[in-house]
């Protein structure tokens, strides 16, 4: 007995944590595990050797799952565990078979955080059904009844809509595996990478896995990879309309998904994109649903809205974690609307409703999101620029009220959970600008479009405002969509007009256009015509006209019909002529510009635009916002009506010969643009700017490398802008994220030059001073597929329509002074889509040197044209790199920027 007693006392092991974690012991396990997720697999493997505690933490399956899924995009093949799968991807699995099988020993170590996660990984959901749910079930629901009682109002569960579908019989795991086993489907997971798995590999994964949040087939391209699947079902009669149908398949946002998932998988709390409505039909298995009305954020969920562009980010636990950890804390009156969906049932989720889904067993389903007359205005509202209204649409009055008004049962919440709740949406500092009849705190939240519209920023410039990356389509695509609806659905024009007024402030611009046309005696454009009415700051029309009068550009820039200034005064628009010379009184009286450079008779021309770029380069966001302000004064240009179509509409219809001719045409136009004389500005001009703006380099003075070079004033400003943009490039690229590889973002500062002056061909004069060889030219900066008009020619003799000929290039509002290569970048990436042969065709007709550069094989990287082009892409204000890596999946595995440079721009080095 005494020996047994001693043995028992010896079994009680010493706590491993102090020795095993060292200084990390002050951090909770949740933070330590979060840090481990930031490491690479080799670093995790090395850290596992540091101590027994680190060995336990570094061999946890959820960690290796995250490490594996954070790898570059690829087709995944599960190997029985996430560590084995990761090592297989690194091609080191054979060397590490035994460590993968080695059991973990936990004596002397305990962790509530790891235990909860382990429990969630192995819990069974047999008893999770909620068959007596409070979502209405309606059999034989008619379309009229659905529209009156449910559409855009409340959810409903409808049995029988899939009874006639082939999918009702054939969409089972066994039959789909037999027919589509070798087909790859996209996987939904909390990873920025797009991951796919063959169905046979995914079925193996479902059978073997024990993940808290299992991988989930959520494929919006299943109809393209397996067209037969589209024949197995049809859209239920309750949902006949989808206004996105007017868009071509490659233009419309994702709208239908094949969903396959095992027990414990599901969709965490979210509101469907663009505030669309959705229907979801279950073919196999059971799903548990929870829903909250619009504006009521579920417990445990935090909503963030980006102050810049309104991009909405949601922090939410997994669906299983929410039901296990948060659901039990809810009082009965705070619980969501719930139901268990059975095979053959279709659930309808209205616009703006929060919902969460948990698969109780292996499930197969199909779902579609759509826009109809009931939610059209909400969809337009969600895509309007700004951020306040987006927060209200998702978080309701939580987006406006202070933390004290958050109605949560705080006694049952941990300090970390309370901290998350206090991270709710910021109160907008400009709430006082809203013209409410009563205090915001007294308002009842209403998901009424007229109520939600009150939170729009009425003064926001919809054309120049940042466009949210969370929007389902871009700003140009939105205008194109509304236009196609206007033409294709004339019976809906009242509704379409309301949506356009919400999303684009169309009523404001329409009134303005009416005043302009009336003042200049120009007829209003007909519905079916394309009128080019430009209202932009930038190059003044008369200087543009004089610049093109003696060059080849004159035949391909639309004629200017009228110019002037339009301004809003006492609720009505006033028009005054202005030739661009001097400063009109209306601008002097209303402008916040503290200094107007008087060195030219066109104070608001290119040079002033360059100074503005110089001033804002490297500025913090808050300064930029105040710098932009809201203006009620617009200089404008009205150009002639351009016949034909833009290249964006014709891209897929043009013959190869037409596209080749377009490339040659663009080369000739760039030549004519880049040889135009640049207005000289003296050194005093630049010194005046430097002193006035006080925007030198870090030490407050102009960089010595620029001071010691005899550069033109324009070039000094240009180089200073480049150097200032370079300072925050890592932050900007990290914010953009995928598809830019994170491994390359880490190397960006190493790749870029110390000073951009190094990139230009400079030589010493007889006095030993550096001189500039490749000076700044006029550049358009954004010739893209919607800037080019083409006309269809008549075939000689028979009157039939033939090839398409380039006719006009327009939108010179971004005209600037800079390196000619800046015009090559958008053309090659947006118009040519990286086609090297088209680039060569352009260069053949361009016939201007980019400067005397060294050849690409002499080791002088800063003198490669390809290096210069790559650097411009990296520091560009727009996400040029996202376009590059989005266009070429192969480049996402590049190990260095030099590799990307050679692939995209290498052919420039052959051009001299």
Automatic annotation (TrEMBL):
Domain JmjC: 224-387
Alphabetized Pfam families for the sequence: Cupin_8, F-box-like
Record keywords, A-Z: Iron, Metal-binding, Nucleus, Oxidoreductase
Segments forming domain F-box: 21-67
Gene3D superfamilies for this protein: 1.20.1280.50, Cupin
GO cellular component: cytoplasm; nucleus
Gene Ontology MF term list: metal ion binding; oxidoreductase activity
InterPro entries to which the protein is assigned, alphabetical: Cupin_8, F-box-like_dom_sf, F-box_dom, JmjC_dom, JMJD6_ArgDemeth/LysHydrox, Kinase-like_dom_sf
Known cofactor(s): Fe(2+)
Record bears the keyword Cytoplasm: no
Coiled-coil regions, chain positions: none
Subcellular location: Nucleus
Family that this chain belongs to: Belongs to the JARID1 histone demethylase family.
Identification of the protein by name: F-box protein At1g78280
